[in-house]
Design a protein that fits this description.
The structure is a single chain. This protein has 13 helices and eleven strands. By secondary structure, the protein is an alpha/beta fold. It has a single domain, classed as Ribonuclease Inhibitor (Leucine-rich repeat, LRR (right-handed beta-alpha superhelix), Alpha-Beta Horseshoe), CATH 3.80.10.10. It has an eleven-stranded mixed β-sheet. β9, α10 and β10 (272-274) form a beta-alpha-beta unit. α5 runs parallel beside α6 and α8 runs parallel beside α9. The radius of gyration is 23 Å and the shape is elongated. The chain starts with 20 loop residues before the first helix and ends in a 35-residue tail after the last helix. Residues 1-32 and 335-360 have low confidence and may be disordered. It comes from Paraglomus occultum.
């Protein structure tokens, strides 16, 4: 445990006077700067977190992921007492409501850089307005599965401006092109933007994403209104193609082989491309270059799985360019077909968490 002055400080074992482990550690916690509970500690309650907040005012990081017994009461005290927090992870704390943030959050919480509220699905735009007004220098904001968030909340996020680098809005199905275009025009240093299952979005949102100079990863899984025109916008901007590394297009059923070929030719840094459930890529000659599907997938899911990484992206690029040249530039003409027809089926393959960025198939 590293202290602010470079000295290592540790909480050592000793008599706990009948107190719980969490309470004992918390009361010794005037020296603590980082605290995390093993993910999925479902028996951690407000009582322990309140003791922690009262005795550890200099906490810099607090991870309560999947501590699903936590309520507004303890988080209010954390925000009130621990005003040095730089990282707060509350993913899966499903009992939290707007009161957790609107009652006691300081008017200025500028030191907070990372906030994870995954699946805190009782939160509304009111919380987002409070958070973004107080923590105006957030770099990472994760709101995946916060299903009550609307365009109003996204407009509030846009006020963070150039400080915001990473934004996850997956499953926020109420948001539309209006707020995403506003967001991308104000948060111009975004590097990662995940909009998976934001089903109301269209190509219009991507047209503005194409002008983000720092964007490296784009998630559009199950954004079924996305077409080739969005892909061509990314290419034609001549901004995104220099940095783009990962693109998630699974279940964007209107994407063609031709558009993908132009994308991978234009983006030399591209190392990950997901096209699971895209009809144009349900072809053995293309899927052969993809990663093997997870072992726990059903037969149908395995057939739909289509994810290219690293060497697979390079091999797909090479294969499609050869096909294109032998077919008279059919694909790269921007008028190319989508390859083989396949019958429609159940497209519901779960998003798979692969790394710290919430990488999707």
């Amino acid at each position: 445990m590293e202290s602010g002055n470079g000295m290592e400080k540790r909480v050592t074992s000793g008599k706990r006077s009948g107190k719980s482990k969490e309470e004992w550690r918390a009361e010794r916690g005037v020296e603590m700067e980082k605290s995390g509970f093993e993910e999925g500690c479902i028996h951690v309650t407000d009582e322990s977190i309140i003791v922690l907040a009262e005795n550890c005012p200099y906490l810099l990081e607090l991870d309560l992921t999947e501590c699903n017994q936590i309520t507004d009461k303890s988080i209010q005290l954390v925000l009130e007492n621990c005003n040095q927090l730089r990282e707060l992870r509350l993913g899966g704390c499903v009992k939290l409501t707007d009161d957790a943030f609107t009652k006691t959050m300081p008017s200025c919480f500028d030191q907070l850089r990372i906030l994870d509220l995954t699946n805190c699905n009782l939160l509304t735009d009111v919380s987002i307005q409070t958070i973004t007004s107080s923590a105006s220098k957030l770099r990472v904001l994760i709101l995946a599965k916060c299903s009550l968030i609307t365009d109003k909340g996204v407009y509030s996020i846009a006020n963070i401006g150039k400080y915001l680098h990473y934004l996850h809005l997956g499953h926020c199905s109420r948001i539309t092109d209006y707020s995403i275009t506003h967001l991308t025009r104000h948060c111009t240093r975004l590097r990662y933007l995940d909009l998976a299952r934001c089903t109301q979005l269209t190509d219009v949102s991507v047209f503005d994403m194409a002008h983000l100079p720092e964007i490296r990863r784009i998630g559009l899984v199950k954004c079924g209104n996305i077409t080739d025109q969005a892909i061509y916008a990314l290419i034609d901007s001549r901004v995104v193609d220099r940095r783009l590394e990962r693109v998630h297009l699974s279940y964007c059923v209107n994407i063609s082989v031709g558009a993908v070929l132009e994308l991978i030719n234009a983006c030399p840094r591209l190392i990950h491309l997901s096209l699971t459930g895209v009809p144009a890529f349900q072809r053995p000659d293309l899927q052969q270059f993809g990663r093997p599907p997870p072992k726990d997938y059903s037969q149908h899911q395995r057939q739909m799985f289509c994810v290219f990484s690293g060497k697979g992206v390079r091999e797909l690029r090479h294969h499609l360019n050869i096909l294109d040249s032998t077919m008279g530039n059919r694909y790269s003409s921007r008028m190319g077909g989508t390859g083989y027809d396949i019958s429609e089926g159940d497209n519901d393959v779960d998003i798979v968490e692969v790394d710290g960025y919430g990488e999707q198939n």
